[in-house]
Design goal:
It is a single chain. The protein is about 60% helix and about 10% strand. It is mainly alpha-helical and about 150 residues long. The protein has two domains: about 40 residues, no CATH class; about 110 residues, Winged helix-like DNA-binding domain superfamily/Winged helix DNA-binding domain (Arc Repressor Mutant, subunit A, Orthogonal Bundle), CATH 1.10.10. Strand 2 and strand 3 form a beta hairpin. It is elongated, with a radius of gyration of 19 Å.
Length: about 150
């Protein structure tokens, strides 16, 4: 459906304004779709992002600072997220050997198992946008350029 129909606005100040509004609208639409999928696994998008970061490091641990640097949502409160994930048994945290002020974080076996289960819906997540491969490349390239 066209953005004009979705928000019931037929005119925009400029094509750039329309593109920004369309991008914001689509971002919120995507987040809502992902939230619905993650709800059944009792995790948030940010927690899923942390688990995927940790799985990429597994079996090594990484610091909360490094996790924050790699997160999609740079405004996430990583400490609070990690505390909730520890309570769920998804991650473990221990004092860093090299820096006693920092903590090393790793994915638990329970976290690995949950991610393996969630891998079954990964294709659904990846195909939320109904695009062919060429259009997906084009969209990604355009978004990269727009952040210039």
């Amino acid at each position: 459906m066209k953005i004009e129909d979705e928000i019931k606005q037929q005119r925009f100040v400029s094509p750039n304004q329309k593109a920004v509004i369309n991008l914001l609208y689509t971002t919120n639409w995507l987040l809502a779709k992902q939230k619905d999928i993650f709800k059944s696994y009792n995790v948030t998008l940010q927690q899923f992002n942390i688990m995927r970061i940790l799985r990429g490091q597994h079996p090594k641990s990484i610091s909360a600072t490094e996790i924050k640097a790699r997160m999609l949502d740079k405004n996430s409160d990583v400490s609070r997220l990690l505390d909730r994930m520890i309570a769920k048994g998804l991650v473990g945290k221990k004092t860093s050997i090299s820096d006693k002020r920092a903590a090393d974080v790793n994915l638990t076996q329970e976290g690995l198992s949950l991610l393996a289960e969630m891998d079954k819906v990964q294709q659904k997540l990846d195909n939320i946008l109904v695009l062919n491969e060429g259009d997906a490349h084009l969209l990604s390239d355009l978004l990269d350029r727009s952040r210039g």
